[in-house]
Structure formats: structure tokens, C-alpha cells
Design a protein that fits this description.
membrane, mainly alpha, about 90 residues, transmembrane, about 75% helix, about 0% strand, DNA-directed RNA polymerase, single chain, 3 helices
Length: about 90
């Protein structure tokens, strides 16, 4: 009689293991049956778009900061002479 509970436990474990194996097999067949996803924009194109949008946002931010907040002409933020002057101030070049 004492072996019967152990046998029941073993049977239960085996049936649980079989159920897990079946679920795993179903998941694998689902993955195999799926078609590969076709992306509208390839990853390399997404990276280029993000870099370009970041550059545009940087330029717009420079113009807003220099023109609106700094009370200057917004297009002056894009002049080389402006940045040369800022570089000279930062490096204390006379």
C-alpha cells in the first residue's frame, strides 16, 4: 500500500511532462508555419531616417535657441563665423 501514492505521483509527473512536451511541440510548429515578416522599411533605412531627423531637429533647435531665445537672427545660428566666435570664446583665443 505505501507504494501506491508514489506510483500515482510518478504517473502524474509523467502526464505533466507529456503535456509540457505537447505544448512545446505545438509552439515549434506554429513558429515553423509562420511566414517571415516583410518589413515596409528595412532596418538600414530606418537608421538613416533617424539620423536625418536628428540632424534636422538639431538645426531647428539651434535656430530657435539663437533666434527666439537669444533675440538674434535665426539664420545667423548657421553661419560659420558665429561658431568660430563661440569656439574662440570657449578656448579663450584672442
Amino acid at each position: 500500500m505505501p507504494t501506491q501514492p508514489k506510483e500515482n505521483e510518478n504517473k502524474q509527473r509523467r502526464s505533466e511532462h507529456k503535456a509540457e512536451a505537447k505544448q512545446k511541440a505545438k509552439k515549434e510548429t506554429r513558429k515553423e508555419g509562420k511566414k517571415p515578416r516583410r518589413r515596409i522599411l528595412p532596418i538600414w533605412l530606418r537608421i538613416i531616417i533617424v539620423v536625418l531627423l536628428s540632424a534636422v531637429a538639431l538645426l531647428v533647435g539651434l535656430m530657435v535657441g539663437y533666434g527666439v531665445i537669444g533675440n538674434g537672427n535665426p539664420t545667423d545660428a548657421l553661419d560659420w563665423s558665429t561658431w568660430q566666435h563661440i569656439w574662440d570664446i570657449v578656448n579663450k583665443t584672442d
